[in-house]
Target: FAD assembly factor SdhE
Amino acid sequence: MKERERARWRCRRGLLELDVVLQRFMDKHYAALDEAGIRQFEMLLDFPDTDLWHMIVQKDEDEGKADLQPVLRLLQSV
Model:
């Protein structure tokens, strides 16, 4: 539970749109993530707001982030 609350706290960002998407993700998908999914989500939260937002709205098509795609697709679905 502590890990979930820490992740929820990290979802509080500077962009309102990003806050909304991340909170919906937490409500819908976070509890079902396995260890690898949680690590991917934590790695995504390390990105600056604008970079993360561009990835979510598919403006950043960088193949170098292929290892983050499973969780990124879930974020894009909310």
